[in-house]
Amino acid sequence: MNPVRRRRLLWVLLLVVAAGIATTLVVFALQRNVAYLYTPAEVLRGETGERARFRLGGMVEKGSFQRTPGSLEVHFKVTDGDALLPVVYNRILPDLFREGQAVVATGTMKDGVFVAEDVLAKHDENYMPKEVADKMGMAHKKHDVQAPAAATEQR
Amino acid sequence: MLPELGQVALILALLIAGLQAVLPLAGAQRGKSGWMAVARPAAYAQLFLVLGAFVVLTVAFVTQDFSVKYVADNSNSLLPMVYRYTAVWGAHEGSLLLWTLVLAVWNAAVAEFSRGLPERVIARVLGVIGLISLGFLAFLIFTSNPFVRLLPAPLEGRDLNPLLQDVGMIIHPPMLYVGYVGFVVPFAFSIAALIDGSVDARWLRWTRPWTNIAWGFLTIGIALGSWWAYYELGWGGWWFWDPVENASFMPWLAGAALLHSQAVTEKRGSFRGWTLLLAIAAFSLSLLGAFLVRSGVLTSVHAFAADPSRGLFILIFLGLVIGGSLVLYVLRVPRLEQGAPFTANSRETLLLANNVLLTCACAMVLLGTLYPLLADALGLGKISVGPPYFGLLFLLLMTPLVLLLPFGPLTRWQREEMSRPLRMLAPWAVLALVLGVIAYFTAPQGKWKTAAGIATAAWVAFGTLRFLWSRFKSKGNRFTAEMLGMTLAHGGIAVFLIGALLVEGLNVQRELAMTPGQSERIGRYSFRYEGVDELQGPNYLATRGHVQVFRGDQPLVLLNPEKRAYASGGQVMSEVGIYPGVFGDVYVALGESLGGQARAVRIHIKPFVRWIWLGAGLMALGGFVTATDRRFRKSENK
Question: What is the rounded distance in angstroms from the CA atom of residue B555 to the CA atom of residue B528?
Answer without folding.
Answer: 10
